[in-house]
Amino acid sequence: MDTVSLDWAFDYLSDMLPPSTLHTLRAAISTSPLPTLLTYLHTLTTTTLLPLLTTLASQVATLLSSSPTLVAAATTLLLFLVLYRLLRLLQRILLFWTRLLFRLLFYAAAGLIASAVWQRGVERTAQDLMVFGSRVGGWVMMVVGIWVREYEKAQEMQAQGQPGQGRGYQRQQGGRGRDGWR
């Protein structure tokens, strides 16, 4: 069994290493089992693995050429997998920037409150927060009142049987109301 020559590696390293280091490295490798191991791996791949891989590749090529439906299904599956990966990447990018934005908003609000407390004092800031909270609460109660009135109006119209809001889909002639769209 011939040993694999490593002269190409030493030629490559001769530009980077000093001659004394290159000579020491050549002597160490010549006494090591590395060339024998490389020769064994080269022989193993050329005599054993290469015939197996060529046979496998020819069988796969024959199968794919005899079954174009399989190729189309595999291509479609591959396309869906690539699209899924792209959509997941876009989702992660969107989540990252959304989280970053909300963190920045949170810290900006905390900084604003801290600067307000620093400039105006604790008591005035607490009074301002009470006024702000009462105004927001009043606005929320106004919106809830509007929603409750509209809800009661829709319930009343439904109880009277009037067409329109609250009755769902109706057919023009002899419709069945909420029975469906069929």
Compact summary:
The chain is mostly helical and 182 residues long. 80% of the residues lie in helices and 0% in strands. The chain folds into 3 domains: 1-66, no CATH class; 68-120; 126-160.
Q: How would you explain this protein's 3D organization?
A:
Keywords: Membrane, Transmembrane, Transmembrane helix. This protein is 80% helix and 0% strand. By secondary structure, the protein is mainly alpha-helical. It folds into three domains: 1-66, no CATH class; 68-120; 126-160. Helix 4 packs across helix 5. The relative contact order is 0.03.
Q: Which sheet architecture does the biggest sheet show?
A: none
Helix percent reads over 70%
The best one-word shape is elongated
Low-pLDDT sequence parts:
none
**Category from helices, strands and their pairing:** mainly alpha
Quickly count the domains. Answer: 3
Quick check: average pLDDT? 85
Q: Order of SSEs, N→C?
A: HHHHH
Radius of gyration (CA) equals 39 Å
**Structure annotation, total helices:** 5
Strand segment count? 0
Distance between the termini: 81 Å
Strand content: under 5%
Features:
182 residues, mainly alpha, 5 helices
Q: What are the SSEs and their pairings?
A:
Layout: H1 7-13, H2 19-31, H3 34-66, H4 68-120, H5 122-160
